[in-house]
Each structure stands twice: as C-alpha cells, then as structure tokens.
Model the fold of this input.
Amino acid sequence: MSVVPATATFDQIAALAPDGLFLSNGPGDPAATAEYAVPVIRRWLATGKPLFGICLGHQLLGLAVGATTTKMFQGHRGANHPVKRLSDGAVEITSMNHGFAVERGSLPDGVTETHVSLFDGSNAGLELEGGRAFSVQYHPEASPGPQDSLYLFERFVGML
Done:
C-alpha cells in the first residue's frame, strides 16, 4: 500500500503500479480539489482498475464522471446517520462529516445511485457501470454500525 497526496499526478500514481485506487476523505469544497484531482481520476477510470471513494473521494468521483456537487444547507455531521442501500433496502448506520453533496439528478447515464440518506434523501453512494468504480458519501472506516459497511472494503479488496 502506498499513500500519496491529493495533488499527486496520474504518472506519480501509475509509477507505483497499484492494483486499485482509494480516494479518501478530506475537508473542503470538492470543486476546489477537483481542479487537480478530477483529471487524475478520469485517467485512472480509463485504466479499468478498481476505484473506491469515501466522503470527499465520493464527491470527486461524482465530479469526474460529470455529476455536480452543491453546498448543503446544514450538512451532515456525526454518527447514527441512517443510509438506505438501494440494492436490497438494507439500512446502514453510518458516520458522516460533510457539507457538500453529489446532486442526485445530475448523475449521468452509466452511473447508478446505490445509497441514499434517510435523513434528507441526498445521494450517499454511486457506482459506475461495470462496477469497477464505486463510492459512498459516509465514513465506513468509522464503523458506527459497527460492521454495517464492512462489505464495502471487502468488495474493494476482492476487486484488487
């Protein structure tokens, strides 16, 4: 495993020969980070290798595929945020800490909404056609469920 800064170029990442790319959380407006991160994400997606994003990584994946993000009125902060997994209707208890959201109505063809916040109906997950790239708005690493979201990491590791 290698960790690179958000400003790493595609060539710097590719030189490490990773089997997959994990887009982590982070603070701030996704549009500002997108200036340097979205071109890298788009090049990564073209490789066909797995990608998993959380929180800011989710928002950046959304921007990279042509969706839009907007500032939320109040944002989501703290634990015990119920999120519905749309594939089977299961509810996951999640931790969240964000003030921006991927706009549900802006998801382009080939991108499926996978999770939705039960507090306000905002987008909480997406997957690209073919399933090689997916993301969630919440923090599965926080384990508030405590294992409601473990399957996401298992899925990503299984793809590597």
About this structure: The longest strand covers residues 69-85.
